[in-house]
TrEMBL record:
This is glutathione transferase. It holds the Pfam family GST_N. The keyword Transferase applies. It is an enzyme of class 2 (transferase).
Amino acid sequence: MATSYVKLLGTRSSPYVNRAQIALNIKSVNYEFLEEKMGSKSELLLESNPIHKKIPVLIHDDKPICESLIIVQYIDQVWTSAPSILPSDPYDRAIACFWAAYIDDKLIPLLKEIRTAEGEESKAAAIERVVEGMVVLEEAFVKCSKGKAFFGGDSIGYVDIAFGCLLGWLKVTQKMGDMQLFTEARTPNLVIWAERFCSHDAVKDVIPKTEELLEISKIKILQAREKSP
């Protein structure tokens, strides 16, 4: 399908925006990236996503599509000539959607608990819950990949994109908290998968470097402190 008009609203540091970028790259779709300023929302964003007023938003032929995983599904369904992102088999597709939902509904909230935990005991408990969640994903990878390189098999798929875009911020969390959330001892397959995912041509220029994300994280912490009473 010819690309007539594709724009993506977002910020480079957002893992949710990165999901859309990687999906577009996999499909070799040319698009214009419109960078939103940190701490503000453009008129185009507010017009395009009036319900949630957040990024990412994909605009295709003047039609906005919101929510990162929905955008990935849309890209896969519209640009069908390139490698598929979602499995064609209905059962495999359902399983992929299940694990993507697990990442958003279970794993991401657990990661937020680490940042908000008060006291060493609470923080240690939050870290252990995240590690347990990673072990669950390790088991899911073994089943979904069927011995191949990615959750999606031979190529990057839906779950790879859903989880892989968190890797940049996972590294920041580990570095700032002096912790290890997935290791060769407990999640050996995920460690290898993460290196393979980040070095993929569709990914390597999308996810910002750890140092850049660290600086952004420090800015966000300062802004949060300034807003607190």
